[in-house]
Inverse folding.
């Protein structure tokens, strides 16, 4: 098969590219290197089955060429994470919404199956954990910019579903929960690589809020296995599917666990959300996926644990 991976120089995209190349597929990576980097694909850069296109998913001509020459599309390119959205509000919304519009339009033109990575952020402030894919979402006000990421990604989902409904384009929407592993950068506020970096340096680990908010962390190798499985599952077409771990850990406990596992002498400090993100920042207490759908469709469940993830996080 010939796969196009948008965002293939990013954290998850580069692992996906490695996996597909190892299975003897051809892979074209399209990335503008905004948060991704060539170093992420170092291990595969000499593979004759890899082609790298540097450019944006908002470039219609480039996307047109890339999509026309592939069999299936993994659309991962996106501004990622709340911190980036807060720091660069206009361009991040544009990348998420315009980029997905362009990629879907070309996938539909050439009738190429497409998998879109969305995010658990779309559940917003909903407290009905575990989150089920057809459960209600609860986004905050448009004056609080943090919700722009959730809403922009939700709009991507609507558009993908609209193509499925109106043209039968095979699309799969996958809502990823916190994903962790080698090559994840600590630059955009991702908590595990941040804490691991600070712990290894013997620096203070700064916990936002009271640290009782919890998250579920899933190893990137489990996520990639899920993405490939769902792309190959016709029963997943036209569906929204969660992929994530179900084991919760409070952020303060995560910090202590990382200090212990890395043998660090670091201490922890609690800092207000406002001091990090500015006035009026809202966070959610818990974010737990229901993974029944992924289990029923492809027999998926995470295999790696938090110890593996902490070990595997490298310098970002
Ligand atoms: N990592 C997580 O925990 C997580 C959680 C939920 C959802 N996701 C989703 O998974 C996908 C991949 O995220 P990631 O963690 O690998 O982040 P990442 O930032 O490492 O990867 C995103 C890639 O997209 C590229 N990109 C951004 N804008 C682009 C543009 N306009 N044109 C071309 N390329 C562009 C970046 O350079 C980067 O390589 C994203 O869609 C994200 O929303 C990730």
């Amino acid at each position: 098969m010939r796969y196009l991976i948008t965002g293939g120089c990013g954290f998850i995209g580069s692992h996906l590219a490695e996996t597909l190349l190892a299975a003897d597929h051809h892979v074209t990576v399209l990335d503008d290197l905004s948060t991704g980097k060539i170093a992420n694909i170092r291990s595969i850069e000499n593979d004759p089955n890899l082609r790298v296109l540097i450019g944006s998913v908002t470039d219609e001509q480039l996307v047109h060429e890339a999509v026309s020459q592939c069999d299936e599309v993994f659309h991962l390119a996106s501004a990622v994470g709340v911190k980036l959205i807060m720091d660069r509000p206009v361009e991040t919304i544009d990348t998420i919404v315009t980029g997905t519009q362009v990629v879907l339009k070309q996938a539909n033109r050439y009738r190429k199956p497409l998998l879109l990575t969305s995010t658990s952020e779309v559940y917003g402030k909903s407290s009905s954990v575990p989150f089920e894919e057809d459960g209600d979402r609860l986004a905050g006000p448009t004056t609080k910019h943090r919700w722009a990421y959730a809403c922009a990604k939700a709009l991507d989902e609507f558009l993908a579903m609209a193509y499925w409904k109106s043209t039968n384009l095979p699309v799969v929407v996958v809502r990823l929960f916190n994903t962790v592993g080698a090559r994840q950068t600590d630059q955009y506020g991702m908590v595990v690589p941040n804490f691991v970096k600070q712990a290894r340096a013997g620096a203070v680990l700064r916990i936002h809020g009271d640290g009782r908010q919890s998250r579920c962390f899933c190893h990137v190798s489990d996520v990639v296995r899920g993405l490939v499985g769902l792309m190959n599952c016709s029963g997943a077409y036209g569906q929204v599917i969660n992929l994530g771990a179900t084991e919760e850990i409070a952020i303060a406990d995560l910090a202590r666990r990382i200090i212990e596992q890395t043998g660090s002498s670091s201490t922890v400090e609690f800092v207000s959300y406002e001091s990090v993100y500015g006035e009026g920042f809202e966070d959610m207490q818990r974010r737990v996926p229901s993974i029944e759908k992924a289990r029923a469709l492809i027999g998926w469940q995470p295999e790696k644990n938090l110890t593996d993830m902490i070990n595997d996080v490298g310098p970002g």
Summary: Residues 89-109 form the longest helix (21 residues). Residues 2-179+218-245+289-302 form a domain with the Rossmann fold fold (CATH 3.40.50.720). The pocket of nicotinamide-adenine-dinucleotide is lined by residues 6-7, 9-13, 30-36, 56-58, 76-80, 95, 99, 117, 119, 176, 178-179 (CB under 6 Å).
